[in-house]
Fold these 4 entries.
Entry 1:
Amino acid sequence: MELTLLGTGAPSGLPRPDCPCAACATALGPDARAATALLVDGALLLDLTPGAVFAAARAGQSLGQVRQVLLSHPHDGPAMEVPAGLPQPGRVPDGRELALLTGHRVRAVAMDAPGTGYAVTGPDGQRLLYLPPGGAPAGLEENGKDGYDMVLADVVGRPDALAKLRAVGAMGPATDVIAVHLDHDVPPGAELRRRLAAAGARAVPDGTTLTVGVYEDVPDVPRRTLVLGGARSGKSVEAERRLEAFPDVLYVATGGTRGGDGEWAARVATHRERRPGSWRTAETCDLVPLLADDGPPLLIDCLSLWLTDAMDAVGAWDDAEWADGGERALRERVRELTDAVRATRRTLVAVSNEVGSGIVPATASGRRYRDELGRLNAAFAGECEHVVLVVAGQAVVLRG
């Protein structure tokens, strides 16, 4: 089954008309995208967009053999004229299946937002799933059980759609995930590629023709990632973003509850509200057993608080205890943790503060903590494939 992407952008296209934002200003050349429309084997058109005929011609295709046009989402604005020779666009009711004379079967998949998803099975059995902008499947226990060769979805806007598909086995490691409906939420280029790779997805330019079911170099999801940053830099958001396309993530909170501290309670509540509902939370600093176990991805937030707990345990704040075995005990705890990171089979994203670039702490204990956190970050980063520094909400890739 052959698929040509006549457009890969949001319904308004990218850049958006008259939008002065930085992403739109840099969406030029191959990063400019028309509204998403898919041509399947020259016979099925999913979403009719302005300029579809010219887009097909530029891609070396013709719409002359199209026998069915299906819409996936409400189209705002004035009514669009249907080019001569094309059938009138329609929509398949949720759960119903349409059989084409070409041998393709199209089943409508219910969404949790306005629109319809389409599961297309080719004459030779290849399967693709196309989701509308802003939509995720509303239940896939039956429809997605056989798995898809290719998924085309709003990966940036609804990464949880991929989590739902992974949860029911509708997506596997070899599923080719193509990001469509791309808007100005993420700057095009390297940042977009990095964001998509974290979800196991990729983007292709408008006009690209793909063969469904043929092996592609699917992006490897980073297995161990350390996210560093200063206070309020956006490091926790960056870490959460890297796993929001996966189900059953275990969020490991190392800070505890701190009864009576209203500011801390507010911070914890903000983090909880931001996390997907399918994630679980464990409040613990005992990280080594979690890393040794098999299971879903781990998000550890954060190593800075883990270090505080470890230094409390070895009496690191007292100079005499520090000299009388405390330093040696802390080094052993850090070594056990980094050894566990090296050996873990789980997908891991950890967060830590980068504190050594500012004012030198006035107290000996403050300087000790600063130094030990620097050593911990360096040792932990040495065991990670990806290391990212977040500055002013922008992720700077240090490794990977």
Entry 2:
Amino acid sequence: MGINENVAKPLDRLAGLLAADMDAVNALIRTRMESRHAPRIPEVTAHLIEAGGKRVRPLLTIAAARLLGYEGTHHQLLAATVEFIHTATLLHDDVVDESRQRRGRPTANLLWDNKSSVLVGDYLFARSFQLMTETGSMRVMEILASAAATIAEGEVLQLTAAQDLATTEDIYLQVVRGKTAALFSAATEVGAVIAGGDAAQVRALFDYGDALGIAFQIVDDILDYSGTTETIGKNTGDDFRERKLTLPVIKAVAAADQAERAFWQRTIEKGDQRDGDLDQALAILARHNAIGAARADALDWAGRAKSALSALPAGEIRALLSDLADFVVARVA
């Protein structure tokens, strides 16, 4: 299930339309990730930031501001802030998850060590707060500080919920809103705020980012079971091996018979995994159409994201943001 090249074009077109802004954002990132006293900081940061990511989150900040007619430069500071927060969370996540691959490359914790990843992540969080204060907007700082706290809260909730078969779809959604959607919605919301959008416009862009982020994470969780290593940039089946209860498994557990439930208890709750278990997990997911049901949820959230845009000014940026929602789910459509 690779990315449909025709659907991928809206993201490229949005990046092309906002290329001058994104060039400025990339220059800010390179400048602000430097350290006079600790050369390992730019080494570790560059390894991840320059690994070919699409810069979706900072692009959302730039797009939201420009959509509402913003002509200043503070949106560039905020876009860099968002990327630093995102990179910091990735560094920390790879340590927590003991991951070995990210964006098709070895993780920083594997190339260096866990201590370097955690401390450089801390540094990037600190840098992000320095950047956001330069806008002089207390509301922007409130939004991004709240998002940082929500992200951490979501990660901690996942620690307790991920291996508990009692975890419901509502709890899963709470985790996703924390670990993923919070930064998407903050990215679009601060773009609207810095542009001076009215309350309805700010809310619409928050809702768009929230729904887009949820769709994005559901798709990511689906691809862990149905994608390829080349497509997802990490090892297929990592969520199963890491005993994460993601949406497809939650749906399968809800429909499980006694033998299937015993299988999930052994592999997810107890961590007793054996050769062939991933194939058996895939067979159970297929039996209950858990992947298809999760795909339907992702499409629904993408639809909500597109609907939120109706309250915003029509034009090329709005059209591309709508197409971006399609792009997010195209990987599993």
Entry 3:
Amino acid sequence: MTTSTKGNASQRKGVSPAVLVLEDGRVFRGRAYGSVGETFGEAVFSTGMTGYQETLTDPSYDRQIVVATAPQIGNTGWNDEDDESRRIWVSGYVVRDPARVPSSWRATRSLDDELVAQGVVGISGIDTRALTRHLRERGSMRAGVFSGEAIAPDAELLARVQAQPHMKGASLYEEVATQEAYVVPAVGEKRFTVAAIDLGIKGMTPHRMAERGIEVHVLPATATPDDVYAVAPDGVFFSNGPGDPATADGPVALMQAVLERRTPLFGICFGNQILGRALGFGTYKLKYGHRGINQPVQDRTTGKVEVTAHNHGFAVDAPLDKVSETEFGRAEVSHVCLNDDVVEGLQLLDQPAFSVQYHPEAAAGPHDAAYLFDRFVSLMEGQRA
């Protein structure tokens, strides 16, 4: 939840004091950045050196206060081409040293101005390295950012933070998904039709499929099997999204219906967790998650190590050392994070379905995993043959 005021010019330039309060009582004091007011969410850190515009507009960050580990943010300003969705989704933004003036020729305004325009409360001028170390040791946790008239005694602010809901158990995907179906046409000759279930989809994802001759029908998170098969899909895609996958019973049931029909299936991020649940595996909350564009993942089917883009706080609990028997055939872990052995991908061995936990569309880079869209195309080609 965010409440903000656009404030006067001095407030917009960060002169107003601001306070970040964590649920364990740790307090950081700095200057207001963006809108002046108060906001609450789960404090998480992102290790990306670039791509803050894509991060801020990623629906998977709904109800999260994002801490940028890169020390200087805002150098490239803000433009109208790089948004991944219709708005900024982060609850708040925490930076160390905001750029005074954007220097990119593509910028049409500053990051600060865009945060103000969209009512996003932030804080700057704090030791983000110390904050990141704290979150690594203690785990992601509820937090609040307060500036201007929202500032009160620390004890009062802490009580307000501790009254906020936890991310575990939060059902958020319907909040960020489209309410109406829409179509992203194929680029060039149309080769396939894909029904994409929007659980918080990023704009670059259907674009990457369209580049491969796929007409993408983006459907609401509440889509039924009848809705999916009404578009006569050659394949079905389940997108990224926010919240706890343990709450996503509807998408799990839909995916099971797709698996029963043996339609080629591809899921990313939240979609990977949905596939895990559909196959009978559990999910769990990571201590501080994976967020950034520099996470090493091994594709166990090829042995190749990829540098990948991540944004997830939950993971699938599946065995790394064996093939599992499921209702839909044999399944195995196809990708694993080399930092901590977290499951980063699943695949079925007896039908055309697979998923990864990270983001192969990688709008801000890197592009090591773009081949996964080609793998999806190959599955549809094989099914058609």
Entry 4:
Amino acid sequence: MNVADEPAEELLARVLLTRVIEPGDGIGGRWVRELGVRGLARRLTEDGRPLAGVSGKRWKGLLARAATAQPREDLAVARAAGVRFVGPGDSEWPGQLDDLGEARPLGLWVRGRASLRMWALKSVAVVGARACTEYGAHMAGTLAAGLAEQGWVVVSGGAYGVDGAAHRGALGAGGATVAVLACGVDRPYPRGHTRLIGRIAEQGLVIGELPPGDHPTPSRFILRNRVIAALTRGTVVVEAAHRSGSLVTARAAQRLGRHTMGVPGPATSALSAGVHELLRGEAALVTDAADVVELVGDIGQLAPDRRGPVLPRDLLEPAARQVLAALPGGRVARPDEIARRAQTTQDDAIARLYELRALGYVERHGDGWKLTRQAVMSVRGGPGPC
């Protein structure tokens, strides 16, 4: 059922409550469960009798908010800005948000043409420090671009730093991205990201719990993070100090049973200390989009094996490698000594030595054999003979 088809009273009551009850308020969520949105709206606007769970002072504050709320005007302002209201039960409502229980949003204001429910089905959150380093911005952008190229929707908070880099990475790859704001979606915040958020609204989606024109507060930023965690299949943290809001998102994801991932940084970086703390717990270490997709994707979507460069000596047969390893690094050795150290016969050792000479690894000195200069470098891990 589309929210536009709901009884007008139901829609208006839900919109009114977004002006009265703060995001993530579990007490308000319990009232909604017990009374329904229309019953709670009537209690706040007509009845006025206090409900259990709040002080008299706070109840008076809620009544004052309800008295000034104008849901019809909010809906009109939203429509003029190209914003729609999506509530539980709507065909566009992402069912995974119901995992938040009584902290579930009353509804979401959505700006953009795509279906939020469809996009959320294959989405990953990429979050991290606002004051990130160049490394953090690079990793966030590269990770988001890689996810977008593989058909994943990148979700973040629209903030400076890692959030902005993630959104730009997805947009730059021609992919999909969702910004979850802690304010009205018609009033982009931070102001320095006005153009970026406008671009996200054109190519992706901008969503939020707060009605048009509402402003962000520190607590609203923190509570917004639970929506990011619940909406997505997993959360990747790129740079986060010990007291970072990004860790709040990651821990919310863990509580909800979502995948939690972290991109490691330098051991000396305070901006990676929070990520490293996550990685010491239950979070998975990831370094690129393939690692992320292996965790959150369908069965069989495995990241490629990680291998170092293939060196020429790696192409030798095992027996030849064993004889090569048996030669001392700085002197000539007799065949019997080489055979003994290689744990083979002298005839076999001599045969392998002639093979190795043809490949440029050894040279003959009278009755003995010695590693060439190139072979010494190869054995020590440097470039070997071609």
